[in-house]
Amino acid sequence: MRTIYVLWLRQLKRYLRSKSRIIGSLGQPILFLVALGFGFGPIFKKAGGGNYMEFLAPGIIAQGILFTSMFSGTEIIWDRQFGFLKETLVAPVSRLEIMIGRTLGGATIATFQGVIIFILSLFVGFKPTNIFSVIISLVIMFLMSLLFTGLGTAIASTLDDFQGFQLIMNFLVMPMFFLSGALFPLNGLPKTIDVISRLNPLTYGVDGLRTTLTGISHFGLGVDFLVLGLITFLILSLGSYLFSRIEV
Amino acid sequence: MLTTLLHPTAGKIIINGFDPTKNQDETRKSFGIVFQDPSLDDELTAYENINFHGILYNVPNEIRQKRIKELLTIVELWEKKDLLVKTFSGGMKRRLEISRGLLHHPKIFFLDEPTLGLDPQTRNQIWQYIKKLNEQEGITIFFTTHYMEEADRIAQRIAIIDQGKIISQGTALELKTKTETKSLEDAFLALTGRKIREEEASGLDQMRMRRQVWLGGRR
Fold it and tell me: What's the ipTM?
């Protein structure tokens, strides 16, 4: 337990100390909210989609969580490069504990980031329908954070340089975000896009958040929870396995 | 391999009575280590780094606080304990790592080229700290270096490794007598030849450029 706690605390301290990281990682979601939210708002309304800001905000919260948790997960590459990972790996603690501590730390940060974006979205006109389901949305946020921190850890465990990081961003994180229904409704999509979005775990996170925050649902909250929970479990198991095999 | 990070393909290792492949945690508690490259968290303070280590090694809080103060005072970093490590110089980082590696009372202390890339003043200072700690704590120091005069001056037993194999070992005097040379540098050259080694850089840090291992005994 102490190992998990101290690694969790370390992630948090690092996060809270790098102000540029907090501000930097909020910049993009705010830009999306403002530019897309106000930009596509009129056309979305004309097409009969209703209030676009209501639709968009849960998607952008999901985006913030996705980016932050993937980044936290891949921090292993940094720790490896700068040697800190070795210090933890030669300590008399199990790799599983190290992995759990790091992942919980990363997930806490990502959830926190999601909450900040949620609060900011209130200022640009987002109104959640039900105050109680906001609490359930927190659970979804945390689940998503766990999932993507675990995914980042799993991928980073197999990479050993920074170059790989750019590859993840371009070929995994970006497509996941754009094809998740964060920006557009999933109804009536071409077959290929529909299939891809159904295979994308972020889709269920976005849908879960949209259900709890606005009441609009595509799959239903039960399916969202089930899929998210299952994938999180699988990814964390895979991540632990890959992490236990790291040689430094 | 000695530090449980790599698995041996053949042979057997015993550290402080434990087999690193079987009793991993006991082995890990038995040694302290300073890696060749810095392994501190730059975003944390010196105190947080060393305290983190103490928690990972399960040193009880009371002993931990006392010991941290003691060790940081010896390496003259106690006043700077609340500064972020990223503001430290190379020598300060090394000193912090040395004190950190000793926090959990190890029996063996591994130092992988501890003075690499440091100026002569800092190098001397670091060896003084290590000697002092070695005398106070009575632990075995195991270090690697490329500087022959350091080995000559400090180590009690020396092993020369070339192409991954120990080719000769003994005290500095024994090595010099055996090769009929005046300095350890010449002894080293006599044993390994003058040809420059072109080892392929492997991805594993442990293997990197490690051509000599110096053993210092219990004092």
Answer: 0.81
